[in-house]
């Protein structure tokens, strides 16, 4: 079996326009690609834009964050200091780097 990784943004991850839910695998483009390629392939997906995590090493502006138990190097999008333990949202991926902004959303709205 041939495995393909689609690593990208919110489109890869399949966020709905309200950024609160994901489309089903059959609608997200990695799933569509899987269907087109057939049984000899497995298409995995890892889209990061829009996902939220926690700062583990201060972003000033670069540091580390954790998303779903995986640690990533990251940069504060606006260049500002974001302290350890603060919640962040990935706003873009560029040149292999995650760019984040502090996430002030209400967790009860999720």
Tell me what you see in this structure.
With 110 residues, the protein is mostly beta strands. It has two helices and seven strands. It has a five-stranded mixed barrel. The protein is elongated, with a radius of gyration of 15 Å.
Provide a quick synopsis of the model:
With 110 residues, this protein is mainly β.
How large, in whole angstroms, is the Cα Rg? 15 Å
Adjacency order of strands in the biggest sheet:
3-4-5-7-6
Low-confidence stretches: none
Averaging pLDDT over every residue, what do you get? 87
Helix content: 10-25%
Provide the structure class. mainly beta
Question: What's the helix and strand layout?
Answer:
Layout lengths: L1 E7 L1 H4 L15 H9 L3 E7 L4 E6 L4 E6 L2 E7 L10 E8 L2 E6 L8
Parallel strand pairs: 1-2, 5-7
Antiparallel strand pairs: 3-4, 3-6, 4-5, 6-7
């Amino acid at each position: 079996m041939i495995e393909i990784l689609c690593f990208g943004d919110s489109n890869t991850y399949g966020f709905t326009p309200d950024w609160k839910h994901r489309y089903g695998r059959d609608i997200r483009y990695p799933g569509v690609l899987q269907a087109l390629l057939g049984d000899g392939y497995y298409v995995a997906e890892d889209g990061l834009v829009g996902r939220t995590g926690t700062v583990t090493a201060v972003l000033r502006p670069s540091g580390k964050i954790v998303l779903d138990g995986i640690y990533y190097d990251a940069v504060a999008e606006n260049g500002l200091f974001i302290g350890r333990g603060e919640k962040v949202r990935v706003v873009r991926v560029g040149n292999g780097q995650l760019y984040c902004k502090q996430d002030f959303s209400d967790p009860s709205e999720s």
